[in-house]
Specification:
Na+/H+ antiporter like fold, two-stranded antiparallel ribbon, 26 helices, globular, transmembrane helix, cell membrane, transport, sodium
């Protein structure tokens, strides 16, 4: 598992501990799917408010401002709105492409049997919304072309909502939903490229193909620096933009050419880095300022230079892009595209439009219906099975979250309809469906989580090795690792060690039993539950000296009542006042321990 914050803190001098703590919080904040979804939601709400206020005209005029480069009297540029939709969204699609490549290379899409369930479910989640949309619009040539709008899931919003439930939902639900959304994105990319581009220019397509060939050659010739790929990627974007195919496809194409391997021979690096650490230790002079230790600095610089190159370029780029995309580009996209205005609009025509109901019901009904039907068919034919610890209630909740379309759906709506009124109507359907799907999916999964809580079950996922997780899984993994560190139950520790030996990502269902205690509620189980709670409290209060003594009392007096060891230790070490204070705290915590109120 990854290093704990305590171990990291020891690497830095005392004077910068505060800076490091703030930096870690910033990194965790900007890599949180929940916070990212919140940022997009705030941007969408602001856009709706502005769109229905007197500032809307100035708002539109601002986004139509032209930016670019002057050549004499000629301006080569785009409006700010097109910069966001065509240029910045290409960066978003670059990140999507990197996530797809990760899944295809080392993720869930590498094992066809594991991937079959979410892939087939994604196909169902595309076909059913198309059928529902066309049921309302097939006979209308002006609106029939919008069938692609309700087909895509917004992975950021869906996983952000799921993250609110923490470890009360099995990791299999998160894996299923994220893999489904990735498969969904692949289908959406193909739909945009094939059905929603302009008539392509063959010369520019040929130029784009040549540039793509150059990128593939760079990959095959083991060029691992990111800068050449990004520079050539800009040329690829321009060729695709000029070809008439939507320019965002260039981001996906670029992602698939960026190397996912390391230029460093890992086996040799392990030996070499060990030698370098020993050289640095030998060269270091404790009494001399670091700046004056030339040999030491040179050795450390060699180690740092090579260590940076161990991480594959695709992984480096994905982690660098994540905060910029999810806290910059996507909120900007929401701000400029979620502007449904009712001022001067024919609200009656919008509410009676077949586009509204095709999009709304396509996302809200078609998505979960298609996902569930195709999932049920795959499981019943035994081609695949439900993920570990996942039931059909979990699947229904995840399927409903699949109806959160937002980013991709709005993106396709802008491409599908030339008429601004139809675009606004489609956006209204997308926003309404995404809101309802998000709330309903969350409530259903929350009820499943409450049922698990009543049974005393928590689902802890972690990694048996230092694999490079997708960013979306980091938040859940951090939470699980913190909980795992606090567990003292020997049976769980034994299961944890066995799972770690297998490697990869694993999940442990911690069964607290019908009594809310570990196991079935026997005296031995009560002792273990009390031990875990005492250990947690003493660690939180920083009483490490007492912690070891209390554990010794527990281990050496198995036949005694559970709290007696704690009381005797407190009395012996701290006196009657400490024991009384602890009993008062225990009495205050009774309500929280009963489960009626979250501590």
């Amino acid at each position: 598992m990854s290093s704990t914050p305590t171990k990291e803190q020891k690497l830095f001098i005392n004077e910068v501990q505060g800076h490091q703590a703030r930096y870690r919080k910033l990194i965790q904040f900007t890599h949180s799917s929940t916070k990212a979804a919140g940022a997009m939601l705030v941007a969408a709400v602001v856009a709706l408010i502005v769109a229905n206020s007197g500032a809307y005209e100035a708002f539109l005029e601002f986004w139509h401002t032209e930016v670019g480069v002057f050549f004499g009297d000629e301006l080569a540029g785009l409006s700010l709105g097109h910069v966001i939709n065509d240029l910045f969204m290409a960066v978003f699609f670059l990140l999507v492409g990197l996530e797809v490549k990760y899944e295809l290379t080392v993720g869930e899409l590498t094992n066809i049997r594991q991937a079959l369930l979410p892939i087939v479910a994604a196909v169902g989640g595309v076909l059913a919304p198309i059928g529902i949309y066309l049921a309302f619009n097939a006979t209308n040539p002006e609106t029939a072309h919008g069938w692609g709008v309700p087909t895509a899931t917004d992975i950021a919003f869906a996983l952000g909502i799921l993250a609110l439930l923490g470890n009360r939902v099995p990791n299999g639900v998160r894996v299923f939903l994220s893999t489904l959304a990735v498969a969904d994105d692949i289908i959406a990319i193909l739909v945009i490229a094939i059905f929603y581009g302009h008539s392509p220019s063959l010369p520019w397509l040929a130029a784009a193909a040549v540039v793509l060939f150059v990128l593939v050659l760079m990959n095959r010739n083991h060029i691992y620096s990111l800068i050449p790929y990004l520079l050539v990627g800009v040329v690829l974007w321009y060729c695709v933009y000029m070809s008439g195919v939507h320019a965002t496809i260039a981001g996906v194409l670029l992602a698939f050419t960026i190397p996912s391997g390391s230029r460093v021979n890992i086996k040799s690096f392990l030996t070499w880095s060990g030698d370098k650490v020993r050289e640095a230790r030998a060269a270091f002079e404790p009494e001399t300022p670091v700046i004056a230790q030339g040999d030491y600095i040179e050795t450390v610089q060699d180690l740092s230079r090579v260590a940076r190159q161990v991480v594959p370029p695709a992984t480096r780029l994905e982690h660098r892009l994540y905060p910029w995309v999810y806290f910059g580009i996507l909120p900007l996209f929401a701000l400029t595209n979620a502007d449904v205005s009712f001022l001067g609009a024919d609200v009656g025509a919008m509410l009676s439009s077949p586009v509204l109901y095709g999009v709304l019901l396509g996302l809200l009904v078609g998505k979960p219906l298609g996902i569930m039907l195709f999932s049920f068919a795959v499981v019943k034919t035994k081609l695949a099975s439900l993920p570990e610890n996942v039931n059909w209630g979990h699947m229904l909740g995840a399927s409903i979250l699949g109806g959160v379309g937002f980013t991709m759906a709005i993106f396709v709506a802008n491409l599908a309809f030339p008429d601004e009124g139809l675009v606004a109507t489609a956006k209204l359907g997308i926003l309404a469906a995404s809101l309802l799907a998000g709330v309903l999916g969350f409530v259903l999964l929350f009820l499943q989580a409450k049922a698990a809580q009543k049974r005393g079950v928590a689902y802890l996922s972690a990694s048996g090795d230092d694999i490079a997780r997708q960013t979306a899984g980091d938040e859940a993994a951090r939470e699980s690792e913190e909980l795992l560190r606090d567990l003292e139950d020997p049976a769980i520790k034994e299961e944890l060690e066995a799972a770690k030996k297998r490697g990869g990502v694993f999940e442990i269902a911690v069964d607290l039993g019908p009594t809310g205690l570990l196991g079935g509620g026997s005296i031995g189980d009560v002792r273990e539950a009390v031990r875990n709670e005492v250990v947690r409290v003493l660690r939180e209060e920083g009483q490490d000296d007492l912690l070891e003594k209390v554990q010794e009392e527990f281990d050496g007096n198995a036949a005694r009542p559970p709290l007696e060891s704690v009381q005797e230790t407190l009395l012996r070490e701290r006196g009657e006042d400490a024991l009384k204070e602890a009993l008062v705290r225990e009495d205050e915590d009774v309500t929280g321990m009963s489960g009626d109120e979250k501590k």
